[in-house]
Amino acid sequence: MDGQTQAPHHAVHYVNRVGWLRATVLGANDGIVSTASLMTGIAASGASRDAILLTGIAALVAGAMSMAAGEYVSVSAQSDTERADLAKEKRAIAQQPHAEWRELRDIYVDRGLTPELAGQVAQQLMDADALGAHARDELGISEIATARPVQAALASAASFAIGAAPPVLVAAIVPSASAIAAIVAICLLCLALLGYVGARLGGATPLRSIVRTLFWGVLAMAVTAVAGHLFGAAL
Q1: Rounded to an integer, what distance in angstroms lies between the CA atom of residue 151 and that of residue 23?
Q2: Please, are residues 159 and 27 in contact by the beta-carbon 8 Å criterion?
Q3: Structural domain contains residue 2
Q4: Radius of gyration for the chain, computed over Cα atoms and rounded to the nearest angstrom
Q5: What are phi and psi of 229, to 5 degrees?
Q6: How far apart are alpha carbons 216 and 29 in whole angstroms?
Q7: Would you say residue 175 lies in a domain?
Q8: From the DSSP assignment, how many helices (H) and strands (E) are in the chain?
Q9: 233, part of any domain
Q10: Range of 146's domain?
């Protein structure tokens, strides 16, 4: 606009949070649901408060380590696959540069560019960073989505421990007769909070996220409590 200085436009995007947000939400949700479900199942069997508390502590430690190991192994496998694909693509660019140029050009043609413009774009990108262009547009590998095993492992372990802590703390305070109600109540509160925070960080609708998180958490606790009650009665 004439006579006015327009502030630079910076759009807020959420995709750069995908890597750590997925691991964090998964870890926290698993920490809350698995720990609370296990504790309610033990409580429903008629166990003492000490047994319920010990179960919660064991679930917290074992779950955090399991999440860390699982995330590290799975994300490392993804990282290995990405590196293998990049090495293969690097060899192909060195041995058959024209064929790789054609591949890149055809990708841009499929996206709507004319063959002439697509060829020019492909050539300029290959001149600047051939491997980066093919990694991004042919393989779908970008800096944002690159696998980071250590980051995923630490985020999952920490978030699991944080999610598992509230039901464990509740079990340490309340008597065994009130354990189930107290654990369920704190679990529902934490799940609702997790659904809201996860949605806000990811730019999604909070209500849908909260309902989804609560539904699966309640289902898991209910099934585990029933199983604990039945087997506790049988034993």
Answers
A1: 9
A2: yes
A3: no
A4: 25
A5: -65, -45
A6: 10
A7: yes
A8: 7, 0
A9: no
A10: 16-228
**Residue 40 and residue 82: Cα distance in Å, rounded?**
42
Structure tokens at 176: 């065994």
SS3 140: coil
Q: Is residue 212 part of a domain?
A: yes
Pairwise CA distance, residues 18 & 204, whole Å: 12
Q: How far apart are CA 23 and CA 157, in angstroms?
A: 9
How many residues belong to the chain?
235
Tally of CA atoms within 13 A in the half-sphere of 85 that contains its CB: 16
Q: Under 8 Å CB-to-CB from 61, ≥6 apart: which residues?
A: none
The structural domain count of the chain equals: 1
Tokens of 108: 């841009």
CB neighbour class for 43 (10 Å; exposed up to 12, middle 13-18, buried from 19): buried
> What CA–CA distance (Å, rounded) separates 9 from 22?
28
Q: Is the full-model pTM beyond 0.85?
A: no
Quick one: angle between helices 97-110 and 115-137, nearest 10? 100
Residue the block writes with tokens 């508390």: 53
Q: Over its length of 235 residues, how does the chain's per-residue pLDDT go in tens digits?
A: 444 555 554 555 545 555 556 677 778 888 999 999 899 888 888 888 899 999 999 999 999 999 889 888 988 888 888 888 889 888 988 999 899 999 889 999 998 899 999 899 999 988 988 888 888 888 877 665 565 788 888 888 999 999 999 999 999 998 878 888 889 899 999 999 888 887 777 677 889 888 988 998 888 888 888 887 787 655 5
